[in-house]
C-alpha cells in the first residue's frame, strides 16, 4: 500500500512540476513578445513615412495612402511591385472613422451564454 501511495504522490508532483514549467515558459514568451513589440513601436514612431489607409483591390493587390513627409501619395502594391499612382491633396482626404474600443471578453462571453438560453 505504501508503494502505491508513493507512486501517486510522484505522479502528482510530476504533474505540478510540468504545469509550473508550462506557466514559466508562457510567462517568458509573454514578456519577450511585449519587449519586442515596444522595440518595434519605437522604431516606427516619429518617422517620416506613415501608412494612412490600405484597401484590398484583388488577390495580393492593394491600394495604400502613404504620408511621406508632408506629401500624401496613392500607391499600388502588388506581390512583386510597388507603383506610385498619384500625389493626393491633403484637403481632399476624408478623415477615417474613429476606432471603437474592442469589447471585453466578459461581454462576449455573456452574449454567447445568452444565445444558449
Describe the structure.
- The chain is an alpha+beta fold and 117 residues long.
- It contains 2 helices and 4 strands; from the N terminus they run H-E-E-E-E-H.
What are the salient characteristics of this protein?
single chain, 117 residues, alpha+beta, 2 domains, 4-stranded antiparallel β-sheet, 2 helices, 4 strands, 47% helix
Assembly status:
single chain
Nearest-angstrom radius of gyration? 26 Å
Strand content: 25-35%
Number of domains: 2
Largest pleated sheet:
4 strands, antiparallel
Helix content: 40-55%
What is the element string, with H for helices and E for strands?
HEEEEH
Give the arrangement of secondary structure elements:
Elements lengths: L1 H43 L4 E10 L2 E8 L2 E7 L4 E7 L16 H12 L1
Antiparallel strand pairs: 1-2, 2-3, 3-4
